[in-house]
């Protein structure tokens, strides 16, 4: 394989050769130095600078990426598939994150670039009595009636980013940025590494079916190991991952090519084979047993908030969880709804494209179900899945979310260029790789500031949008603030497009027949439905 420094090495070699040739044979050879000299200097500066990971990993040749991006608008008309770009995030979304992470102006002349008449176009209504929000540090308290140590969280936090899937430098940048901005960083299922601890930022420890970091040699849950880590001050919440939007029902996979000795020690796993977490938890097999596991983790952690992360699949299964909550009196402190459009470093294409309810539908259903069962006030709702802009926040909050977890937006902030090489260990920007040489291109001291800056500027943009609507906090957004262009061209309010149940409606049977059937099928003693 050609080295990523090949162009630089050849340039330096030719520079030396031209100098020697001019000295030994003909001064005419020195003319080549007029080109090779500056190129050599550019390559050296590329390796020494700390702002651009691509240039540190690909000196000289990396500039072509920026040149091509600069002329892209000029060649857009010739790119037949430009409007059908299969890359998960659009250029517009990535550009928004880059600008905010770098603190660049985000004003746009000549008005909207969106087709306001397009189906699905959305907006929130503004007020004739707008307010000026000087405070953009929006926070909520997470911790239900059974929680002894509630956590005061930002409404925007970093979603699951596992050490193993991403590099140690990326983990440090995320966590140190979170500490600068006083928000939380979810570990992902890869457990808590030394890079998390170096950062010192608030941690949400995700416990998945592999129980990494709190497992026995044969992969079972180890309560003593869990308690020892969960009770440390840096850990603020515990998240039980039931499923992930990008690969719901599949479990996690870390190829053995990416498993270093460091990762093996962190996860307590073997390096000789792929690290595969099961598709389901071995510690519980019914909704009632899950409530018991929640109680167990809450007790072992010293009373910290314990919640769930899930992508909605069979609706009767989530309703079975609700029935188990009602039967036992146990409720999770929070539930993070991950949309089927959620991201991952590696997953089968079919699962990514065709399994799992999209975020809007999943969140609306979970919010309605909890409200209809009279449990909504006890449980905080998080949302995850391609959330980038202030309007994304407003839309999600209008449909029931209390806070947002974002991963890919923060990955863009630390330099991800969406090369989609996460599973190859050849990430060009040093984000999703365990190659120390590639990872060193990501300079923590620079990128942690971008993580913080993206968070701060997004919260400022949210404050401005809320103020325009006459609101002071995301919790004040209601479905009727949201408007959507329907398929027939008409404008539909959010409370019409996404109907919300009244408190207790499920318990009294005051719901539509389809939801009533799902409720009747839900069985708290089993994930198998009643027929």
Write the layout of secondary structure elements.
Elements: H1 6-24, H2 33-48, H3 53-57, H4 63-75, H5 91-102, E1 122-124, E2 139-142, E3 151-154, E4 156-158, H6 168-181, E5 184-186, H7 194-199, E6 202-207, H8 223-230, E7 235-241, E8 253-254, H9 261-267, E9 275-276, H10 287-300, E10 306-310, H11 315-328, E11 334-338, H12 349-354, H13 359-372, E12 380-384, H14 390-398, E13 403-406, H15 408-413, H16 436-439, H17 444-468, E14 482-485, E15 491-493, H18 494-497, H19 505-508, H20 513-521
Parallel strand pairs: 4-13, 5-6, 6-7, 7-10, 10-11, 11-12, 12-13
Antiparallel strand pairs: 1-14, 2-3, 8-9, 14-15
Helix pairs in contact: 1-2, 5-17, 6-17, 10-11, 11-13, 11-20, 14-17
Description:
The chain has 2 domains: 6-86, no CATH class; 139-521, Alpha-Beta Barrel (TIM Barrel), CATH 3.20.20. The strands form 4 sheets. The protein has an 8-stranded parallel β-sheet with strand order 4-13-12-11-10-7-6-5. Strands 1-14-15 form a 3-stranded antiparallel β-sheet. A two-stranded antiparallel sheet has the order 2-3. It contains 20 helices and 15 strands. The chain is globular, with a radius of gyration of 25 Å. By secondary structure, the protein is α/β, with parallel strands linked by helices. Helix 1 (6-24) packs antiparallel against helix 2 (33-48), helix 6 (168-181) crosses helix 17 and helix 11 packs across helix 20 (513-521). The longest helix is centred in the C-terminal third of the chain and has 25 residues, at 444-468. The chain has helices at 6-24, 33-48, 53-57, 63-75, 91-102, 168-181, 194-199, 223-230, 261-267, 287-300, 315-328, 349-354, 359-372, 390-398, 408-413, 436-439, 444-468, 494-497, 505-508, 513-521; strands spanning 122-124, 139-142, 151-154, 156-158, 184-186, 202-207, 235-241, 253-254, 275-276, 306-310, 334-338, 380-384, 403-406, 482-485, 491-493.
């Amino acid at each position: 394989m050609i080295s990523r420094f090949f162009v630089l090495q050849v340039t330096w070699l030719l520079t030396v050769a031209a100098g020697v040739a001019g000295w030994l044979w003909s001064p005419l050879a020195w003319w080549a130095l007029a080109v090779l000299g500056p190129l050599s200097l550019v390559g050296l500066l590329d390796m020494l600078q700390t702002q651009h990971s691509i240039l540190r990993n690909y000196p000289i040749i990396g500039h072509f990426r920026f040149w091509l991006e600069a002329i892209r608008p000029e060649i857009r008309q010739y790119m037949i598939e430009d409007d059908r770009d299969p890359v998960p995030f659009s250029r517009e979304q990535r550009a928004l994150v880059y600008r905010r992470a770098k603190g660049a102006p985000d004003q746009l002349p000549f008005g909207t670039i969106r087709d306001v008449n397009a189906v699905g176009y959305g907006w929130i209504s503004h007020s004739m009595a707008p307010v000026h929000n000087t405070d953009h540090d929006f926070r909520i308290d997470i911790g239900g009636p059974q929680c002894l140590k509630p956590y005061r969280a930002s409404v925007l936090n970093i979603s699951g980013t596992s050490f193993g899937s991403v590099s140690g430098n990326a983990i440090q940048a995320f966590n140190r940025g979170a500490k600068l901005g006083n928000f939380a960083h979810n570990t992902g299922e890869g457990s808590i590494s030394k890079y998390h601890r170096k950062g010192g930022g608030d941690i949400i420890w995700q416990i998945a079916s592999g129980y990494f970091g709190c497992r026995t040699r044969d992969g079972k849950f180890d309560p003593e190991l869990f308690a020892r880590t969960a009770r440390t001050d840096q850990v603020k919440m515990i998240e039980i991952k039931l499923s992930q939007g990008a690969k719901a029902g599949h479990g996690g996979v870390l190829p053995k090519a990416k498993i270093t000795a460091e990762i093996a020690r962190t996860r307590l796993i073997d390096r000789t084979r792929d690290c595969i977490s099961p598709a389901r938890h071995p510690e519980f097999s019914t909704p009632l047993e899950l409530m018991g596991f929640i109680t167990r983790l809450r007790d072992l952690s010293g009373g910290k908030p314990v919640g769930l992360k899930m992508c909605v699949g069979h609706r009767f299964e989530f309703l079975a969880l609700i029935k188990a909550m009602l039967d036992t009196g146990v409720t999770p402190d929070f539930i993070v709804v991950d949309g089927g459009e959620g991201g991952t470093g590696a997953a089968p294409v079919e699962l990514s494209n065709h399994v799992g309810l999209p975020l809007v539908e999943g969140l609306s259903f979970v919010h309605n179900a909890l409200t209809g069962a009279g449990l909504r006030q006890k449980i905080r709702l998080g949302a995850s899945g391609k959330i980038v802009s202030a309007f994304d926040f407003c839309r999600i909050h209008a449909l029931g979310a209390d806070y947002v977890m974002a991963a890919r937006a923060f990955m863009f902030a630390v330099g991800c260029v969406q090369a989609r090489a996460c599973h190859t260990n050849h990430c060009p920007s040093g984000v999703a790789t365990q190659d120390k040489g590639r990872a060193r291109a990501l300079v923590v001291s620079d990128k942690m500031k971008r993580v913080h800056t993206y968070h701060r500027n997004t919260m400022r943009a949210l404050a401005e949008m809320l103020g325009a609507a006459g609101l002071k906090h995301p919790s004040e957004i209601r479905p009727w603030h949201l408007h959507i262009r329907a398929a027939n061209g008409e404008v539909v309010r959010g409370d019409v497009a996404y109907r919300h149940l009244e408190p207790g409606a499920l318990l009294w049977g005051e719901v539509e027949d389809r939801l009533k059937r799902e409720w009747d099928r839900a069985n708290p003693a089993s994930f198998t439905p009643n027929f």
